[in-house]
Structure formats: structure tokens, C-alpha cells
């Protein structure tokens, strides 16, 4: 008797013409084929590979995976069940369980390492389930903690694959807090750091608001201080570090950007540019990547040095810089 998996769409009942016979699962290394005549005697072409059959077989319209009877969270492929509950063709998880997209198994509600409903990329775009996210172009791509993804045959749904379920142990430690609080890193002539971030190589970065030239400061794990001078007497507001996309605690330093801020009442040179700069490690310079309009310095903090903008600097997962208050209050710009 032929059995049909509940996970098999009814459309497949009439979608594939295959051999209705007792065919064994193909071994790990089997010849590719297009038709059964491409295979050796006693074999038939099943889903693009040659499989052994007990008889010569008779062509019939049956689903390719009709021999599978799978459990919740499993889908059927080439005669055997596999746990991948993210697959839209898999049997749904039970009432008291949910899909753990990191492992592909159904688990008790609230215990999944990676769960959720996903997000559709626009009105007509694909559905990006957990482990994936939408690109700017409206497609799905892998997202941490997953390093790759699976997609349905028509590409309408994607979900994470090769997902990490444990966080790696850091291979480094930042400079001690006592070192960070030393004046050469933290302070200046009349103020000091306005922002602080660390990369996955444990370097600490800060930008300054001090009289005269301001600096991007990098403090390595061994306490070595490196300063890169900014535009003369132009305040810095924020620093942002791009972290690795697919893993953590890499040894290479991160991509760094910062904001130049100024205003009429800030005491900085009004002709200097204002905006977002990138740290060029090769040249040890801070070239501008987003120019901004001069600010009046009137804003929510009640201090002209902080109300000058731009503000809200951050890196997107697309390796793009985003920042607000560039041309007017409340705008959002990316580069």
C-alpha cells in the first residue's frame, strides 16, 4: 500500500511522473541522471539520482516522497524524513510546542533558541523567517546566529540554516577599566570623551569635545593609546563600530565612523564641515562621508554642544551608516 505524507501538498500528486516500485534510498555518491535510461540495470532515475528498484517499475503519477510518514516538524525528501520545522512543507509543530529554527526541531513553547514569525519584504516580497532578514533589495539573506539559509522551491519563503546555539567565548579582554579612566584616554583640556564603543577585537574607541583639535582615540587591549586628529576645533559627538556579520570576537579591528558636530554658539570654527566621517586606518585620517548642514544648537538637551547634531549614528546590518538630524531635525540619512 502506498502511503502519503500529510506534509505533501496535493499539487504534488500530479506534479511528478516517477517509478511506482520499491526503490531504495540512493547511497551518498550516486550518478546524476535526467531519465532512467541514464542509470545502470535495475536502477531508476528518482529526483535526479539513480536508485535501486526491486522491479522494472511502471510509470505512474504519484508524489515522489509518498513513502514517507513523518512526525511533527519533519518534511519528506527522497524517501526519508528530516527535521526542519522551518520548512513550509514540514508537518506543523504540536499545540504545546514551537519551531526552534536554530535546530529545526519542535520544542516546548518558550525553550527555542531561535523562534518567531519572520518578516515579509514588502507587500509582495518573500517571507524571511527567523535566521534570515530582508535586504535593501527586498530579498532574504542569512542573519545571525545563522550563517546560511534554506528557501522554498519558489523562493517565497526562506529560513535560517547552520545556526549557532551557543555564544563563543571571547578570545580577548579590553584594557582594564582603570586604564580607560586615565586622562590621556578619558579627558581633555576642558572636557573629554562624549561617546565610547568597543569592537570584537576588544579595542575601545572614544571621541572628544575639547578646546581646539578633537580626536578619535583608540585604546588597545594592552593599553596602547592611538589618537587620530579630526578637523581643527570641530567637536565630535558619537562613535560607531561595525561588528562582524556572521561571527563574534574576531581579531581584526572593526570599521569605525564618527560624527562631527558644530553650531554657531559652540565656539568651533563655523567654516569647518559638519557631518559623519569614516576612520581610514591605512592613512590614519577621518574623511567625511555624510556632509551635514550647520545647526543652530537649539535642541532637547539644553546644551549647545550636544544639540548641534547630527545624532543617532549607527551601522546597519547592510554595512551602511545611518544617522539623523543631518539636514534638519528629525531626518534620517544613510551612506
Polypeptide structure, described:
This protein is an all-beta fold and 335 residues long. It is 2% helix and 34% strand. It is built from two helices and 25 strands. It has helices at 177-180, 183-186, and strands at 17-19, 43-46, 49-52, 59-61, 74-77, 80-83, 97-100, 105-108, 119-120, 127-128, 132-134, 140-142, 146-151, 157-163, 192-198, 204-209, 215-219, 225-229, 235-242, 255-261, 274-278, 288-292, 311-315, 321-324, 332-334. The strands form nine sheets. A four-stranded mixed beta sheet has the order 9-10-14-13, with no helix packed on it. The longest helix has 4 residues, at 177-180. The chain starts with 16 loop residues before the first strand and ends with a strand.
For the CA atoms, what is the radius of gyration?
Answer: 29 Å
Mean pLDDT: 79
Alpha-beta classification? mainly beta
How much of the sequence lies in strands comes to: 25-35%
Main beta-sheet annotation? 4 strands, mixed
Number of DSSP-assigned strands = 25
Beginning-to-end CA distance, first to last residue: 62 Å
What percentage of residues falls in helices of 4 or more residues? under 10%
Order of helices and strands: EEEEEEEEEEEEEEHHEEEEEEEEEEE
The strand line-up of the biggest sheet is: 9-10-14-13
List unreliable stretches of 5+ residues. 1-22, 54-65
Number of helices: 2
- Envelope shape: elongated
Amino acid at each position: 500500500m502506498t502511503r502519503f505524507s500529510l506534509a505533501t501538498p496535493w499539487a504534488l500528486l500530479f506534479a511528478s511522473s516517477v517509478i511506482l516500485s520499491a526503490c531504495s534510498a540512493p547511497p551518498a555518491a550516486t550518478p546524476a541522471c535526467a531519465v532512467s535510461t541514464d542509470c545502470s540495470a535495475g536502477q531508476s532515475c528518482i529526483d535526479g539520482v539513480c536508485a535501486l528498484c526491486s522491479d522494472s517499475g511502471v510509470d505512474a503519477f504519484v508524489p515522489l516522497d509518498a513513502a514517507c510518514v513523518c512526525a511533527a516538524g519533519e518534511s519528506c525528501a527522497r524517501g526519508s524524513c528530516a527535521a526542519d520545522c522551518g520548512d513550509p512543507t514540514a508537518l506543523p509543530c504540536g499545540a504545546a510546542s514551537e519551531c526552534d529554527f536554530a535546530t529545526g526541531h519542535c520544542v516546548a513553547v518558550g525553550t527555542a533558541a531561535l523562534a518567531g514569525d519572520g518578516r515579509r519584504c514588502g507587500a509582495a516580497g518573500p517571507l524571511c523567517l527567523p535566521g534570515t532578514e530582508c535586504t535593501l533589495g527586498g530579498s532574504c539573506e542569512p542573519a545571525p546566529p545563522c550563517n546560511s539559509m534554506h528557501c522554498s522551491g519558489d523562493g517565497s519563503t526562506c529560513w535560517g540554516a547552520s545556526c549557532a546555539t551557543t555564544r563563543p567565548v571571547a578570545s580577548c579582554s579590553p584594557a582594564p577599566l582603570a586604564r580607560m579612566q586615565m586622562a590621556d584616554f578619558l579627558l581633555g583640556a576642558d572636557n573629554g570623551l562624549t561617546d565610547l564603543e568597543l569592537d570584537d577585537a576588544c579595542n575601545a574607541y572614544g571621541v572628544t569635545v575639547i578646546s581646539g583639535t578633537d580626536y578619535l582615540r583608540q585604546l588597545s587591549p594592552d593599553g596602547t593609546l592611538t589618537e587620530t586628529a579630526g578637523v581643527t576645533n570641530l567637536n565630535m559627538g558619537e562613535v560607531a563600530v561595525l561588528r562582524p556579520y556572521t561571527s563574534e570576537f574576531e581579531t581584526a579591528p572593526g570599521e569605525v565612523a564618527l560624527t562631527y558636530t558644530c553650531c554657531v554658539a559652540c565656539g568651533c570654527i563655523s567654516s569647518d564641515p559638519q557631518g559623519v566621517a569614516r576612520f581610514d586606518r591605512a592613512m590614519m585620517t577621518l574623511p567625511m562621508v555624510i556632509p551635514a548642514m550647520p545647526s543652530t544648537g537649539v535642541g532637547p538637551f539644553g546644551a549647545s554642544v550636544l544639540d548641534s547634531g547630527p545624532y543617532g549614528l549607527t551601522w546597519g546590518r547592510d554595512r551602511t551608516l545611518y544617522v539623523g538630524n543631518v539636514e534638519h531635525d528629525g531626518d534620517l540619512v544613510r551612506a
